[in-house]
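This part of the workshop introduces the protein records we will be handling. To make this concrete, we reproduce a full record directly below.
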Amino acid sequence: MAFSNAPTELINCHKRTIEVDEEQKQNQFLQWARLILPWLTPGELANVSLTCRTFSQISKSITLSRSLDASRSVENFPIPFHNAVDKTPYAYFIYTPSQIIPPPCPAQFPPRQFWASTNAAADAESNSSLSPLGFDSVSLVCESDESESGCDCEECFEVGLGDGVFGCPCFSGLEDVGIVSECGPSCGCGSECGNRLTQRGISVRLKIVRSVNKGWGLYADQFIKQGQFICEYAGELLTTKEARRRQQIYDGLASSPGNSSALLVIREHLPSGKACLRMNIDATIIGNIARFINHSCDGGDLSTTLVRSSGSILPRLCFLASKDIKEGEELAFSYGEIRARPKGLPCYCGSTSCFGILPSENT
């Protein structure tokens, strides 16, 4: 009898082997899907979600995680999207917490960035999912003798009556010409030094909210005291020639719905008064949450400050609260005073001093 049942047992064993193989293939399929789909753009993700139920479920999970944190878990707090206007769940862009230098050849430009849940990012860490973007960060430190560029302080303390003055050689008094000086990479103090206020990432809770007229905007998600650091303006550091080339492209797309540029030109007037340093930071494709800060004709509730770390060649543009900001209040600053185009883009800042059109000048 045992011999007569052997074929049946072999068949059942074969069926179980097939089922195990199919389960393993299914698990492997899901694993690869969770690693690949987070690299897709919103349009690609939407198309893939239509192919099968599994892709649809994974795509919905990715879309939800993207809407919950614009910073890809890079910052200290998640920065969620909120949209009660339409069905757009989030704004797609490549995130960088600091200035970066694009490669000289556009073909070398990495067009994608892993963006999914924290767990998925951890699973894909071996694939450099949240590693640097594949191009160089801006080297801000002078290549001369670094020992002379920084301080030897183990920690820099505030002195005086809480007036923000530090007992540190790096604090050289440049604030008189509109620049704040901080300790730099070659200083002996660590990241917790009090003279590194703008170097520890975003330390207040923020959110990105969509409105009918202005599109996405950055809002406070907690009470923010006057003088608190909000964020820096991060993006691609461009040559003036490249900035002008891109601005022509952005101007051509400006009339199309959903197209808005985030190219910012900064001019630092040198102490001699005879020259100025020009910086072109483009956060249109690659940037941080500062790209969502809208303009206000009355100056808004943010002040802009140039911050130069000790030994640095270039400063960073940082935003600080110019007054106490309530939870739920929009963050805004003035894009400038020049309006070179009488028929420029309309302004919806809503301030009593609104000019009706956004500032513009010849790049």
